[in-house]
Design a protein that fits this description.
Length: 142
């Protein structure tokens, strides 16, 4: 199948397939006499696994460093969550979890600082700026 058909079958775009190929996540497919890429069901299955792992928060670089292990995940489509291949991605998953935890902590601190700067008010989307005559209002809107 051609790139558009393969992308549709995998739930992505032709541009994403070219990106995965350029990053080494997808082997260059054979080409027709006119130079068009020809994909098979194995490539579509691999792209589905790649997309599943990306949806879990892994990055293209995370996958690129373990591209040799993607075939194991493709063989068992239910392993897209990494559960059936213990250790295959455990270090990258641990790294990604640590990065997410750090980002959550940073955002929590930022939220607390913003709430304090706004006079301690809990800002909700669409809520008006709190007014307190005894405290100058910050130049912020909630």
């Amino acid at each position: 199948m051609r790139i558009g058909e393969a992308a549709a079958a995998a739930g992505t775009t032709p541009r994403a397939l070219r990106l995965y190929e350029a990053r080494g996540l997808l082997r260059p497919p054979p080409r027709t006499a006119s130079g068009q890429r020809e994909y098979g069901s194995a490539e579509v299955a691999r792209v589905r696994v790649i997309r599943s792992l990306l949806a879990l928060g892994l990055t293209l670089e995370d996958l690129r460093r373990r591209t040799h292990r993607l075939d194991l995940l493709v063989q068992d489509q239910s392993s897209a969550s990494c559960a059936s291949s213990p250790g295959e991605f455990s270090d990258v998953v641990a790294d990604r979890l640590a990065a997410l935890d750090a980002e959550i902590a940073r955002l929590t601190r930022l939220r607390q600082e913003l709430a304090a700067a706004a006079g301690g008010a809990q800002c909700a989307p669409g809520s008006p700026t709190p007014h307190n005559d005894s405290v100058p209002a910050p130049e912020l809107e909630c």
